[in-house]
């Protein structure tokens, strides 16, 4: 049987593309989960004094559920404090804080007035929390999150050493209540962020916890440059204050924070706010080049497979049909394997049969969000 040269070239090309393109993925380049904590040059680990700062607005029930997990950490009580800044809540937030303060001597509270205008209330609240803190190491955490382990603070503290100025901690969504797609996107984004922070300087940080030195924050005027923008507080800290070799990533299992599942509206808004925030971040080009290259290789491969399959069926070239089918199987197996391995390593529960669909939908979901963002009023993203 004679096989045309064109068939051989196209078949080999689509097979090669299916293998090569599958490695253009954050799931393949995922940072290893570090179960071994820093030994601080072999010295006996002391307990650095840490201030945990969070803001809350109309989150009384959330604080009742999550705040005790921070206050009851297996860590010397005189070595950490928790500061909650009440953003003029109108629900039972103040009552819940009073009850918890009566039970925990290391819980402190303050508030911002309702009359604050022209600046982000959350950034203002976090800044007040930093100013009220007594300790050099500050940890911003979301009120709608809680540690998965009583050793969370001990794990974090091991990174708060002389070698680091910023520690980005991994967090995930509650698997029982969150959507699989939200968990997938959260992991997808986090893998890019952790790799960038480990290899050079952190570009941004999307999660529920970030630690840094109080002196660094105060000397650089905190959020002064971006106080008007409603969100992006962790992104701005990572982007402005990260120095090469001075940023650590904490992804050990005991160091994870579990975030409450976002509502569909909260999820959409978080993506839209990032589209505004990234306009004001430095070092955007390397981040976008890497992300766009991965996206291009992913979709050009699928397009090549589909086009080859369609042409082979139209021309009754069944050898080419077999090559296209093999390329489809190779791509599906490799990409699914990479995603599921990352999912297991980072304690994420993702449905194996749905991950390829979720990965391919990222591009179209981002295009939909971009249309919404372009149609939005720019004043939707700043404090009025």
Written account of the structure:
By secondary structure, the protein is of the alpha/beta class. It contains 12 helices and 10 strands. It has helices at residues 5-21, 60-71, 93-103, 121-132, 152-157, 180-199, 214-219, 233-241, 264-277, 284-314, 318-345, 355-375, and strands at 50-56, 80-86, 107-111, 137-141, 145-147, 166-169, 171-173, 209-213, 247-250, 257-259. Helix 1 packs parallel to helix 11 (318-345), helix 9 packs across helix 12 (355-375) and helix 10 packs antiparallel against helix 11 (318-345). It is elongated, with a radius of gyration of 24 Å. The model has no long low-confidence stretch (mean pLDDT 91).
Helices and strands in order:
Blueprint (H helix, E strand, L loop, with lengths): L4 H17 L28 E7 L3 H12 L8 E7 L6 H11 L3 E5 L9 H12 L4 E5 L3 E3 L4 H6 L8 E4 L1 E3 L6 H20 L9 E5 H6 L13 H9 L5 E4 L6 E3 L4 H14 L6 H31 L3 H28 L9 H21 L9
Parallel strand pairs: 1-2, 1-4, 2-3, 6-9, 7-10
Antiparallel strand pairs: 4-8, 5-10, 6-8
Helix pairs in contact: 1-10, 1-11, 2-3, 9-12, 10-11
Secondary-structure-based class equals alpha/beta
Radius of gyration using CA atoms only: 24 Å
Tell me the major beta sheet.
Answer: 7 strands, mixed
Total strands: the figure is 10
What is the mean pLDDT?
91
Strand content: 5-15%
- Number of contiguous helices: 12
Euclidean distance between termini CA atoms: 75 Å
Spatial sequence of strands, sheet with the most strands: 3-2-1-4-8-6-9
Short description:
With 384 residues, the chain is an alpha/beta fold. The protein has helices at residues 5-21, 60-71, 93-103, 121-132, 152-157, 180-199, 214-219, 233-241, 264-277, 284-314, 318-345, 355-375, and strands at residues 50-56, 80-86, 107-111, 137-141, 145-147, 166-169, 171-173, 209-213, 247-250, 257-259. A 7-stranded mixed sheet has the order 3-2-1-4-8-6-9, sandwiched between helices. A 3-stranded mixed sheet has the order 5-10-7.
């Amino acid at each position: 049987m004679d096989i045309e040269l064109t068939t051989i070239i196209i078949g080999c090309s689509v097979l090669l593309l299916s293998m090569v393109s599958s490695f253009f993925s954050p799931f393949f380049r995922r940072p290893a989960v570090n179960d071994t904590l820093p030994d601080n040059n072999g010295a006996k680990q002391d307990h650095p004094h840490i201030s945990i700062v969070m803001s809350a607005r109309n989150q009384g029930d959330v604080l009742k559920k999550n705040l005790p997990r921070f206050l009851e950490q297996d860590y010397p009580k005189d070595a950490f404090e928790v500061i909650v800044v009440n953003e003029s809540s109108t629900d039972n937030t103040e009552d819940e804080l009073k009850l918890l303060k009566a039970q925990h001597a290391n819980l402190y509270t303050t508030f911002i007035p309702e009359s604050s205008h022209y600046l982000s209330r959350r950034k203002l609240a976090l800044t007040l929390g930093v100013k009220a803190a007594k300790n050099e190491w500050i940890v911003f955490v979301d009120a709608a999150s809680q540690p998965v382990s009583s050793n969370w603070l001990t794990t974090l503290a091991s990174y708060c050493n002389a070698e680091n100025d910023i520690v980005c901690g991994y967090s995930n969504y509650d698997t029982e209540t969150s959507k699989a797609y939200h968990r997938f996107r959260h992991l997808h984004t986090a893998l890019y962020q952790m790799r960038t922070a480990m290899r050079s300087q952190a570009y941004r940080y999307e999660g529920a916890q970030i630690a840094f030195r109080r002196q660094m924050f105060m000397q650089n005027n905190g959020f002064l440059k971006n106080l008007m923008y409603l969100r992006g507080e962790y992104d701005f800290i990572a982007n402005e204050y990260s120095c090469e070799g001075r940023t650590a990533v904490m992804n050990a299992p005991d160091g994870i924070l579990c975030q409450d599942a976002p509502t569909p509206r909260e999820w959409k808004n978080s993506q839209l706010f990032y589209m505004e925030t990234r306009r004001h971040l430095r070092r955007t080009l390397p981040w976008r080049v890497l992300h766009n290259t991965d996206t291009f290789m992913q979709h050009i491969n699928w397009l090549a497979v589909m086009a080859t399959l369609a042409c082979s069926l139209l021309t009754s070239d069944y050898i080419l049909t077999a090559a296209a089918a093999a390329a489809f199987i190779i791509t599906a197996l490799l990409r699914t394997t990479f995603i599921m391995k990352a999912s297991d390593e980072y304690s994420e529960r993702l449905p194996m049969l749905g991950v390829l669909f979720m990965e391919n939908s990222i591009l179209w979901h981002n295009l939909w969000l971009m249309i919404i963002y372009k149609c939005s009023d720019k004043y939707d993203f700043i404090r009025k």
